[in-house]
Amino acid sequence: FFFKQKPAYEIPLRLVGSEMCIRDRKYYMTGYANYNSEGAWLAQFNENGTFSWIRKVGNKQLRFHDIAFDGNDPIVIGTDYGYGLNFPTHTPYMGYVAKFNSSGTRTWSKIFRPDSILNNYHGPGNFMTSVAKDSLGNFWCTFAYPDGQNDPYVYAEDVHGIMKFNSSGVFQGCYLLPPSTSSPRCLAQCLFIDGNDNMYLGFTTYDPTATSYPHGNISKFTINGSGVPSYAWTKSYGQFEGAAHYDVPQKIYQTSNGDIIVGGYTQQSNVDSTYYPTLMRLNPANGNWIWKKRYSKTYGEATGGHSMITSGCLLYTSPSPRDVEEYRMPSTA
Q1: Is the dihedral of CA 292, 295, 301, 304 positive or negative?
Q2: Contact criterion met (CB below 8 Å) for 149 and 122
Q3: What are the DSSP calls for 268-304, one per residue?
């Protein structure tokens, strides 16, 4: 996704894995830049596409992945892969959380890591990719608990988790969600909280036997008045073992009648090497599938993002050889 700021000279900037949100009639975009070893970026612009400000944070190993809001103030989460470049004494895979005001001034920033780190290749920042806010004002984000960590728990493979913090960046606790079966690797991908504090978590599970390719899962939790989530159901989809394949959830949204929309991608290497974008619709009460759709390469390869818009359609963006693709698909497709 290219955008340009033009002061005395032009700066071409490529934002990878970017997220765009609207708040108080301002548009916010966050991501990371593959340009001149730059790092994470947060930008605000108006409806005409004019940038009010752009803020760079860290170097090329710091990446912002998602954004939520405390009032009109954006809170971004991401991962530091810095190998000592941003935080010299810590693991490269740390979670990073920062709050900015609407003028682009950073008010606080925090890192998320274990008290003790086993080595420089394991940390919870990996897959810290999605953040959402509940009605109590708590913020929840995804992370990966690594297999190399030996305190407080030891797992044979990575386990996905969710972390809670308040609007001041104070840690409120975290939950690990290990599988009930024999040690498959689980990685969190996306998170969504609706207006009734139902939390939907998308994650991938890698086959514990012959292959290492992921299939998709959607879990539902309900957050009570004390801010504690309780488990409701999990639904899995895609190919479960055999030839190389990917079935990955990347975004979760809700339709006007309360159904859940999951966007992601699928790929089967035994068929071809194409990454097809996918959309699925679920019943929120029990997780039953209403429909599943796989779209052709006309809509790009893999997915970049989805947004619900007021006309009852989905706005779909995808990275592709043409950089940005936007299509409207009816949510009742």
Answers
A1: negative
A2: yes
A3: ETTT-S--EEEEEEE-TTT--EEEEEE--GGG-SS--
Distance CA 314, CA 327 (A): 8
Residues 6+ apart with CB under 8 A from 259: 281, 282, 283, 284, 290
The set of residues, in sequence order, having a beta carbon less than 8 Å from that of 126 and lying 6+ positions away, is: 79, 93, 143, 144, 146, 158, 187
DSSP state of 155: -
Rounded (5°) CA angle 195-200-201: 145
* 230, two tokens: 């309780």
Considering the entire predicted model, what is its pTM? 0.82
Whether the bond into 152 is cis, omega within 30 of 0 = yes
Per residue of the chain (333 residues), give pLDDT as tens: 222 222 222 333 334 444 556 556 788 888 887 665 678 889 998 888 889 999 988 876 788 989 999 999 999 998 887 665 666 655 557 888 999 999 999 999 998 877 666 555 556 667 788 999 999 999 999 988 877 677 777 777 788 889 999 999 999 998 988 877 666 778 889 999 999 999 999 998 876 554 556 788 999 999 999 999 999 999 988 765 445 577 889 889 898 889 999 988 887 665 666 777 888 999 999 999 999 888 776 555 555 444 444 444 555 554 443 333 333 334 444
